[in-house]
Amino acid sequence: MHPDVAKLVEAGRIPKAVGERLSQLAPGKFCLHKSFGAGKVVDWDLPAKKVTIDFENAEGQVMELQFAFQKTEFLPDDDFRSQKIEQIDKLRTLSQKEPVELILHLLESHGGSMSADAMEKELSGTVIPTAGFKKWWDSAKKALKESRRTIIPAKRTAPIVLRSTDQTPAEALVADFEAVRDPKGMIRALEAIAADIGAFDEDPDALKRLLHDIDEGARKASRIHLGQALQLVAARDEVIDSSKTLELDPSAVRLADLVRDADPAKFAEEVSTLPTARQRAVFEAFSDAFGEDWVEPIVRVFDRVGARGVTEIARILADRGGMPQLTHHLRSALARRSLGADAVIWVCRERADAAKEVFSPDVGACVLNLLENDHLADGPRKTSRLQSLLGDDKKLLSDLVGAMDVNESRNFARRLLDCPVFGELEKKSLMARIIKARPATAELVSGVTKKREEALLVSWESLERKKAELDEMVRVRIPQNIKDIAIARSYGDLRENFEYKSAKDLQRYLGHRKNELEKDIGRARGTDFKGSVADKVNIGTIVTLIDEAGQEQVITVLGAWDSDPEQKIVSYLSDVGSALVNLAPGETAQVRETSTEVMQTLTVKSIRPFNP
C-alpha cells in the first residue's frame, strides 16, 4: 500500500479495501482504460481527488479518482501492456529474436487466450511495423505451432490458447485433437500428429483413445459431408501407418465402406475437393469396396473427379491392368461428345502414351464442343484450362489435324474459326499451326474473315433477345457482381477465399459477354424473312433433303441466332447452313450429322420460302 494512502487508512478516513485499490492508481503504476488503452499514472492530488494518467492514445488525462476507480483496471509492472509503455525497445528486440516468447508473454497478460485479430491490434504499428506485420506473423505462427506451447485455431476469429506447461509433446498433440469437434479440425490435428509421430514413441497409448472419436466423427460426417469423412478416415490411416504400435479396430469405419456406400451423384464432386494424396487413397480403396468388379465403378467417375482425380485414376488403372476398360469408356464418351474437360485434357497430354489408342479426330470435335457449350452457359468459365492447353501445347493442333483426313481437317478448322471463345489474334495463331500441318485449310482464313466482317442477318425476335440480355447485363448482373466482389473481399484472406475467386471469375465472364453482345448487336440487321427467293437455298427458306438411304428430312435455314436443333432450324452461318446455302434442287452437299459427327451426303429435293 502506498505510504500516503496507508496514513488515511490508519486514520480511519478510508476502508482498507479502498486504500488498496487507491494504491493501484499511485504515480508510477499502470492501468488499462477501455477507450484510451494502457496508461501510466504520472501524478495524483489526493485532497482534490484527481489523478493524471498518460495513456497510449491520450496523454495527460486528468480524471476524478472515483471515475478512475470505475473505468480503469490495474496492470502489473510485468504485464505486456505495461511494458509497451516503458520497455517498447525491449519488446521490439524480443519480437525479432524470440517471437514465440513475445507471443507467450502477450497471451499470459491476456488471461491465456487471445484472437489473432486482437494480437495484430496489440502489436502492429507499435511493436511490429505495420508494413511488415503479415510477414512477421506468418513466420511467428509457424514457430508457435512447432513449439506446441499454444493451441492454434483453424479460424482467425477463434482464440489462440496458451497450453499448460506440464504437458508432454504427445499430450499436447492429443489435446489439440480433443479441443476440436468438427471434422475439419480433426483432420488438421491428425495431420500434425502424423507429421510428428515420433513424439508418441514413449507414449503409445495417448493415440488409442482418439480412434473412437475419429470413427464417430467419420460416421456422422459421411451423412452430410462425404468429402470430410473421406479425408478424416484417410488422415487416420496415415497416422496408423506411421505408428509402430497402433492398430485399427475391426469394427472401425474404413475408406472402402465410405466408397461403397456413397451416393454416386455426390461422390465425384466431394472427392474432387480432396488433396492429391488423399484422392489416391480413396481410389485405391475401390478394389476393397467392390472386389473383382472394382474397375467399372471407378471408370464411371473418371471424367467427373477433377484434374487431380483423373490423373490418379489413370495411374491406378495402368498399375493394375484396368486400361482396356478405360480405353473403351473414353472411345464411347468421345464419340458421344460427353467426355468432361479434365478428362479431355488428360487424353491430349497423354496422346503419345497412355491415351494413344483413343487420340482421334473425335478429340478435336469434343474440345470445340466443350468450349462452345461452356461459352453459351450462364456462369463462370469451366474450360479455361482446356482453352489454354490449345495455345500452350504447340504440337497439339498439329497432332489433332494430322489424325484427320482433308475434309475432317477443313471442318475442324472452320469450326475453330467460327468458335466465339477465341479472340482474333488467338484464332490467327491457332490457324497458323493448323495450316502448317494441313495446307489445304489455308483458303478458309480469308473467306471466313471476310464473312465475319459482313452484317449478321437475324430475326427481329432474336435481336430483341440479345438486346434484353445486354440490358440485364448492364443494369442488373454487372452491378450485382460488383457488390458480390466487395462482400467476398470483406471475408479476408483472398488466397483461400472461394467466394472472392468465384465472383472474380464471373466478373471476367460478364465483361467478355458484354463486349461480345455489343459487337454482335452492332453488326446485326433484323429481318422477318418475308419475300425470300426459293430458287436456291437461301436465308429464310425451308429445304427438303434426301439422304443416301432415301430418307427425307426437312431443314429450315434462318438467321445467325435462330438455330433450334429440336425444330430442325439451323443458322445460315452454321456448318450445315453454310453447306446448303446457294444449292439448287438436285445438288448435293457433304454435311456432318450433329449427334454422331458422321459425314453424310444430302441431296436437295425441294425448296420453299419460310412463312413466319
Can you offer a commentary on this structure?
The protein is of the alpha+beta class and 612 residues long. Among the domains are: 3-77, SH3 type barrels (Roll); 87-166, Arc Repressor Mutant, subunit A, CATH 1.10.10; 322-453, no CATH class; 456-527, Transcription elongation factor, GreA/GreB, N-terminal domain (Helix Hairpins); 541-609, Transcription elongation factor, GreA/GreB, C-terminal domain (Chitinase A, domain 3). The strands form 4 sheets. It has a 5-stranded antiparallel β-sheet, with helices on both faces.
The helix-and-strand class reads alpha+beta
- How far do the termini sit from each other? 102 Å
Rough outline:
elongated
Biggest sheet record: 5 strands, antiparallel
Total number of helices: 30
Number of strands: 15
- Helical content class: 55-70%
- What is the typical, i.e. mean, pLDDT? 86
> Which residues form runs of ≥5 with pLDDT under 50?
none
Strand order of the largest sheet: 4-3-2-1-5
Work out the radius of gyration: 36 Å
Strand content: 5-15%
